[in-house]
């Protein structure tokens, strides 16, 4: 038997996934190489797998306490877990009066360093300046097109690796997901 912790109200939102990954990291789980299973009900992301219900319940209880949200619950996983990186990668997007600033979330940076130790990612943010939102769209076409151009720079990964890991652009002030690319290896699972 294997167990994971998921939300019982329709799946984990991208911003909530950050709290989940942060707690795993604080428990010294290697986010780049872990036992994982597709998120129950949505298959949107990889979630960590515990070998006992008790250990999963301990994690769920801690997550409920830290997030002040009782929607976290233990779910039995039917399929055997696979091993690999937790995805998707999280890219933070901050709006500024002069445009956007995009940066790789520190948890995602740790995951990439573990899963792809030879990759030389950057420790920088990327600023995109524009006067109006229409200027952004006329230059890049869409947020998806902007992401395809910027995310490889932030991560140091090839686009094929990014498609395997998946990525989400999350707006800092609203926690709204602007772009979501499901992990390709999850689709194959």
Give a short summary of the structure:
The protein is an alpha+beta fold.
How would the blueprint of this fold be written?
Blueprint: E1 2-7, H1 14-26, E2 34-38, E3 46-48, H2 53-67, E4 72-77, E5 82-84, E6 89-96, E7 99-104, H3 106-115, E8 126-129, H4 133-140, H5 143-155, H6 159-165, E9 167-171, E10 177-181, H7 184-188
Helix pairs in contact: 1-2
Fold and architecture overview:
The chain is α+β, with helices and mostly antiparallel strands and 189 residues long. The chain folds into 2 domains: 2-84, 2-Layer Sandwich (Alpha-Beta Plaits), CATH 3.30.70; 89-188, no CATH class. 38% of the residues lie in helices and 27% in strands. The chain has 7 helices and 10 strands. The chain has helices at 14-26, 53-67, 106-115, 133-140, 143-155, 159-165, 184-188; strands at residues 2-7, 34-38, 46-48, 72-77, 82-84, 89-96, 99-104, 126-129, 167-171, 177-181. A 5-stranded mixed beta sheet has the order 8-7-6-9-10, sandwiched between helices. 34% of the residues are buried. The mean pLDDT is 87.
Q: Top keywords for this entry?
A:
single chain; 189 residues; alpha+beta; 5-stranded mixed β-sheet; 7 helices; 38% helix
């Amino acid at each position: 038997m294997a167990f994971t912790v998921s939300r019982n109200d329709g799946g984990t939102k991208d911003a909530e996934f950050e709290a989940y990954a942060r707690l795993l990291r604080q428990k010294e789980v290697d986010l780049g190489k872990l036992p994982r299973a597709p998120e129950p009900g949505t298959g949107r992301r990889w979630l960590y797998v515990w070998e006992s219900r008790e250990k999963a319940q301990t994690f769920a209880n801690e997550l409920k306490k830290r997030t002040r949200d009782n929607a976290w619950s233990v779910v039995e996983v039917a399929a055997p877990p696979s091993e690999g990186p937790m995805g998707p990668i999280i890219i933070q997007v901050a709006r500024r009066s002069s445009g956007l600033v995009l940066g790789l979330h520190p948890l995602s940076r740790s995951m990439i360093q573990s899963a792809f130790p030879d990759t030389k990612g950057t420790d920088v943010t990327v600023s995109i300046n524009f006067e109006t939102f229409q200027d952004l769209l006329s230059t890049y076409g869409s947020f998806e097109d902007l992401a395809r151009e910027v995310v490889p720079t932030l991560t140091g990964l090839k686009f094929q690796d990014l498609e395997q890991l998946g990525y989400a652009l999350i707006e800092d002030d609203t926690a709204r997901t602007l772009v979501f690319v499901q992990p390709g290896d999850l689709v194959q699972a």
